[in-house]
Amino acid sequence: MLLINSLFLVNLFMKKILIIGGGAMGSAFSVPCIDNNNKVFITEPYSQRFIKNLSSKNIFHSGLKINLSKKLIFKKYAKELFFEKYDLIVIALSLSGINFVSKELKKYKVKSPVLVLTKGLKYEKKNKKITTISQTLLKNIPKLNVSVLKGPCLAKELARKNQTSVIIANKNIKIAKLLGKMISTKYYLIEYSKDVIGVEICSAIKNIYSMIIGSGLSLNKSSSLFQKSLLEMKYITRQLKGKEETVLSLAGVGDLYVSAAGGRNSKMGNYLGQGFTFKSAKKKFMANDTVEGEQLVREIAPFILKKFNSKKIPLMFRMIRAILKNKKFSI
Ligand SMILES: NC(=O)c1ccc[n+]([C@@H]2O[C@H](COP(=O)([O-])OP(=O)(O)OC[C@H]3O[C@@H](n4cnc5c(N)ncnc54)[C@H](O)[C@@H]3O)[C@@H](O)[C@H]2O)c1
Q: What is the pTM of this model?
């Protein structure tokens, strides 16, 4: 009887979480969710490689190089998935998957709260505007309860339960805190913000600034680029209607540090600093790597070049020129 009662209690507090996106980040995110006693489902709509990983017996993830918990439940991506009610749906796809998932959530009239891990911005050609991911989702589904989670988090480290601090933003801080309670653990620490736009802008543009910092080639030069990058990030965040102080949060300077210290963006920046053009560096050294900073440059350049003053954000303008015109990057 006692056992039945305690099982009932566990189930009562156990939340149902669906993670859409079985790449490195979506899969790593399942680790604290499971440790916090949630029932965690994961689905993969796009990559055969991740489907194979997640449906294998040992749940070995080829990106994380780790066996995931047997408690993680893999679900084939299908419309039936959305017939169930979840306490939380997590979006962990790359930026290129956002339009797809936005249409799907609308089609299946999803009412569960949504938490976005994806980092990036979109340029709306029609309205000539830069939009964040939460704005893109809300435009499609105005009543969606959407929060964003960003910050310095290498998926491989989180999957190995290294201490990681991130920030959840929602205009309604109570909702952000409820989500935080659902997913935080001793090693996954959560901070909160109401500045959804600022958090999204910072977490996206840090990919471009980590390329710029990576081009420094020496710690002295990179440190000075780091300081100048922060000033430009403050300016851009303010202009795009985020809060300047968010640049000093985990989503801004926190994430900039981890990306500049290591990672694909700063690696590309390093080649640019050595005098390679973007195309030659990509072909020669990083042919199979996604460089998120480059993708973001291409996405937002039409807006930045038109609406911003090059004297206010000279580093950004030089990086845009280097990538779009395939010119050497010099500072
Ligand atoms: N919020 C955080 O703490 C945090 C930390 C690290 C990374 N991220 C972000 O998470 C996102 C995913 O990163 P990752 O390291 O898991 O990348 P990954 O390459 O390992 O996985 C990418 C995921 O997106 C899917 N995808 C790719 N192209 C798609 C398309 N055209 N349509 C639909 N789905 C598509 C893949 O199938 C896979 O599920 C990125 O935006 C990254 O910046 C967030």
A: 0.95
